[in-house]
Amino acid sequence: MKKTLLILLTGLFIVTTSARDVYQTQRHSWLEKAEAAKPVLLKTICNPICLLKSVHDSNAFQGWKMERIADMDSLYKVSFKTKKEAIADFGRHLTGNISFRLKAIDNTPDAPVRLKFTFAEVPAELNTPFDPYPGVLSRAWLQDEIMTISQFDDEITIPRRFAFRYMKIELLGASPYFDFSISGITCTATTSAIGITQKLADTTPPVIKEINRVSLETLKECMQSVYEDGPKRDRRLWIGDFYLQSQVNTYSFKNHNLTKRCLYLLAALAADDGQLHADVFETPIPHPQLGVHCLDYSLLFNSTLLEYLKTTNDKETALDLWPVVQNQVKYALGFLNGNNIFDPSVKKESLWLFFDWNDKLDKTVAMQGLLIFTLNNSCQLARLLNKEQEVKEWATISLQMIKAAKKEMFVPKQGVFLSGNQHQLSQLSQVWMILSGALTPSEGQKALKVAIESPISIYPVAPYAYHYLIEAMIKCNMKNEAKKLLIDYWGGMVNKGADTFWEVYDAKNDYLSPYSFYPVNSYCHAWSCTPAYFIQKYPDIFQK
Amino acid sequence: MKKTLLILLTGLFIVTTSARDVYQTQRHSWLEKAEAAKPVLLKTICNPICLLKSVHDSNAFQGWKMERIADMDSLYKVSFKTKKEAIADFGRHLTGNISFRLKAIDNTPDAPVRLKFTFAEVPAELNTPFDPYPGVLSRAWLQDEIMTISQFDDEITIPRRFAFRYMKIELLGASPYFDFSISGITCTATTSAIGITQKLADTTPPVIKEINRVSLETLKECMQSVYEDGPKRDRRLWIGDFYLQSQVNTYSFKNHNLTKRCLYLLAALAADDGQLHADVFETPIPHPQLGVHCLDYSLLFNSTLLEYLKTTNDKETALDLWPVVQNQVKYALGFLNGNNIFDPSVKKESLWLFFDWNDKLDKTVAMQGLLIFTLNNSCQLARLLNKEQEVKEWATISLQMIKAAKKEMFVPKQGVFLSGNQHQLSQLSQVWMILSGALTPSEGQKALKVAIESPISIYPVAPYAYHYLIEAMIKCNMKNEAKKLLIDYWGGMVNKGADTFWEVYDAKNDYLSPYSFYPVNSYCHAWSCTPAYFIQKYPDIFQK
Fold it and tell me: Is the backbone peptide bond immediately before A176 cis, with ω within 30 degrees of 0?
């Protein structure tokens, strides 16, 4: 990570620094603090509740529904050589390790058995052939494992951690000389979501109660020894997901230590120039996905730290990580052109902006908005830490950027921001300019309504983007619209049987996948867990 | 194992014994002695020597030969995402655990990889689709494993022990965002064959030197913490294989402690009525294949113990196990009819006799011969242990059985024994009557020659049966024939590329399998390792 090279040459130290490491003195202590805040995972032994069969149904999500066929004893107490296949239902999404036993039911086992296990978050994962694999991401994310087992009676634990509700077992090989049964299937499920969440008001509509429940299940499953983006895939800490998770956590499980750990981990694993990496890994030792930076994500670190400070009043951590906040802003401001417009062409650097899956989205206005949003939050953080003097120009730049955006990107007649050379109209452009404070609530309402109603406007795709749309609606006092959207979008997933909220959801296309193979989508994904945040934070909108 | 049932009923012990356990007082100490004699395995780190490709060749054994294509660096130093498949050659048969490393060669690994490993004793195992599996034995014996690996840089060890020379690696899944190489493949090979074997005389023909070498490799690979029948399959102690292995061991590695361990294990795990089980397992705790008895195997325990005593002079062990010797004979004598002929119909019990794979073989004469052979060896054992008084009738019965066989089974005109109601002529009938001592060398020669030359005679199939044929030839002073057969049969395997001798070998049919799928045959099999015994024991025949 550190590129400092020490060469001992005839008694002389020559220090070659290929790039100055701006956090050289802090990294070690940041990593130690991240380690000290590592949660002890809560382990729960969960049993499957029944056996299911898959039923093709074109009305069901992705074409498959599951039907209960028998209780577990009809697996546990019969020959698996006869049965050959079974699907167990754990009744809810779990993240953890599976154990089971094989028991000989007649003669002495004289050969290993070969079993295939497939773990699924949604029914279609059990019913879509994985091979030949057409997907973009690694085939190895798919949760099927083949095991050769010689061990009888003892408990066998599959080493790989799975994220799933359904467990399919298939017999691939057995000896003709003995029979056996499978029994004692358990999942040791883990989470660091230990706190008790607040009950909703009795007036809360049932659909919102259900959305809230599924949101919290989603967050709980993603809360492991870091905030993972998805326990099936990618199983790591991404800043964008983290920002949303930590806010839901504030309104639910209140495991603020996990937020602290992730803030420190990201900081400790930043690049030498101070830029955060978009995602980091915990094992075998904490390390970043080297060279992968996402500017909108990096900037959200600042807002995450602000919310953490406001929630916990942990000034020590906020002061410790203040240099990281400064560096993210400093780096982003380097992209401003002479007119205070964020312009990637200013720097000769490759730049990754995310905001949403939609490749068609022009991100210029959104980035202008997110940078203003970040400046405002970072100034608020500075005030809480008595650091205003260090960043006094930020408030000014924020105002200049708003002014510039209104001048260069806003079309007063229509009341909307248009993005890029093609003057693209999109919902997210309005969303981020609203969150930046550039528009009054009534201006914001108008902009959003135009962008939502226009048939040529680019609409959000990922639940991640829908989160900011709802946040913007609430900021513009569009309470009914926010509530309706939450019920339509997340309630849509609930109606389609979601146990946890999905990484990708388009009401019109159950098979949408950014990876060319929908079974490799994550069906328990952090950035989709935010309804609980809205429901708890804005009871006057959602709990009546 | 013990069927004694203790029921505590209102202060009263009711002891229900479904069958008296004849070894009740000894079992525990026998197991302890087996455990005390358990060898510490010699572990050797072995590296693959080069990369190979499979070449279809109708002249090669089972249609495939391997050709060297590159050194290991052409795997270790290149992208495996590009290479996708490799076959490593360890240059010899090994039994042990495989370790390797995955190294990222550009970006940070962001997803698991999915690899398939196939381990093969012979080339066809790499080139014959395993599925859909047509074989009789468990599909799980085939040595292919699919692994999902997230661990980079660290050494990864595949938990399953393999028996193999060739290792194929195939890429089933990887991330588009990083590349990796596979390196540092090693096999930690194990054996309990630690002694140094004696060099052959310089006069030994090269083909016999080679047969001797391959024999010893075969035995070495099968010598683990017991004498296994085959390290790929069935990986356990079978009495029939054990008898042959222990004799080869006497003339090679001289690990007599392993023989002692196996004698005690078999004894400790015998049935309550005293009968030995045909095979036993070591893990998780020593246990027999319950209910599986093979009478010809059981009786060979006695000869194994005799040879052990003659080699080691360990009277303590022989005296300890003397009751087992007596019980095997006693049980077998129960099958004699009034005319001193072994007759399965005497007892109303199912009886398994092996002798050879050949289902057509009538085993009546062979069993008569093997029982006489066992009586003779058991009497010899009794003399060495001063136990003649306990079994004084055995010598008499042996003579009566010879007399009866000559009367009822022998056709003086042709000079051969004919077996069963169909008066079947077979080589093995003559073999076992020769080994029983019923025929003089010249009578034996005549019988064997007739049986070998007759077109309707049943010939041996398994190498196990060929062993006894050679032993019988030597006993009849058919030195040239014995030598020629050894060179033809085992030399045939050597000529076809055997690194170790095979479980099944028919010069005329490379694809022969008793299990309906030749890749599941064992290609390193204990009962085929006996040429080294002959070569060392009879230097005047084989070493010139």
Answer: no
